[in-house]
């Protein structure tokens, strides 16, 4: 056999094995569950990352809210100092204006962070829905797998029994029993025949004995008659 033919045969056997495996409902269900669980793990990882990002964005928004309030407080303190004469009014206005500018930047960041956080939370909600759907699907398939395994076990046992029953005639069991029955009947017939032959043989012997017995009795009778004619006593 050439190397190409051997490779072809190996490849063909692998294809048949793959087809058999593919057509096995239990193996298909098990593989499907493994795939779904991998999808679930990936979805859970993505969900955790998205939720984590949403939490960070919410925290940054809160930090900027605090910063905005702090910049506003500082601007107010500067103006109060100018009012009390502790700080030059022009310098106080300049610094207060700068503080308010920082406050405005913080407010803008708050808006952006809150928008981004809301987007992440919406995405997290969608992922959570997918996660729940995957969990439900996996649970359904696992229940189906339990049922399939039970059905497969019953089918295999039934198949084995039916296969054994189907092989009874082909294995010659019934034919062998019939031959044994015939042999027993033959032995019984032979036994009966030998018994009859034994009875017949015994009857012949008895007939011979009877004939001899009859012959002897006749001889004794004639002897007695002869003695009587001669005047001899029977005792003699």
Q: How would you describe this structure in keywords?
A:
4 helices; 236 residues; 2 domains; 0% strand; 93% helix; mainly alpha; single chain; Helix Hairpins
List the topology elements.
Layout: H1 3-23, H2 25-84, H3 89-170, H4 173-229
Helix pairs in contact: 2-3
From the N-terminal CA to the C-terminal CA, the straight-line distance is 115 Å
The helix content is over 70%
Please write the string of helix (H) and strand (E) elements: HHHH
CATH topology descriptor of the largest domain:
Helix Hairpins
Please indicate the percent range of residues in DSSP E strands (runs of 2 or more): under 5%
Describe the structure concisely for a colleague.
The chain is mainly alpha-helical.
What would you say this structure looks like, in words?
With 236 residues, the protein is mostly helical. It contains 4 helices and no strands. It has helices at 3-23, 25-84, 89-170, 173-229. α2 packs antiparallel against α3. The radius of gyration is 59 Å and the shape is rod-shaped. The chain starts with a helix and ends in a 7-residue tail after the last helix.
């Amino acid at each position: 056999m050439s190397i190409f033919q051997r490779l072809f045969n190996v490849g063909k056997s692998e294809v048949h094995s793959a087809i058999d495996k593919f057509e096995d409902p239990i193996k298909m269900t098990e593989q499907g569950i493994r795939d779904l669980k991998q999808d679930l793990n990936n979805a859970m990882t993505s969900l955790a990352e998205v939720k984590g990002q949403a939490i960070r964005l919410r925290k940054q928004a809160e930090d900027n809210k605090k910063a905005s309030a702090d910049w506003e407080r500082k601007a107010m303190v500067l103006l109060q100092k100018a009012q009390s004469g502790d700080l030059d009014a022009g310098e106080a206005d300049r610094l207060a204006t700068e503080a308010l500018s920082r406050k405005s930047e913080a407010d803008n960041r708050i808006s952006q962070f809150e928008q981004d956080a809301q987007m992440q939370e919406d995405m997290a909600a969608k992922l959570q829905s997918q996660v729940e759907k995957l969990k439900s699907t996996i649970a359904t398939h696992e229940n189906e797998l339990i049922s399939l395994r039970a059905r497969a076990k019953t089918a295999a046992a039934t198949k084995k029994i039916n296969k054994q029953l189907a092989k009874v005639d082909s294995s010659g069991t019934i034919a062998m029993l019939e031959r044994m029955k015939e042999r027993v009947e033959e032995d019984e017939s032979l036994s009966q025949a030998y018994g009859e032959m034994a009875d017949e043989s015994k009857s012949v012997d008895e007939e011979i004995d009877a004939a001899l017995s009859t012959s002897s009795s006749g001889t004794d009778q004639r002897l007695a008659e002869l003695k009587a004619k001669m005047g001899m006593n029977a005792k003699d």
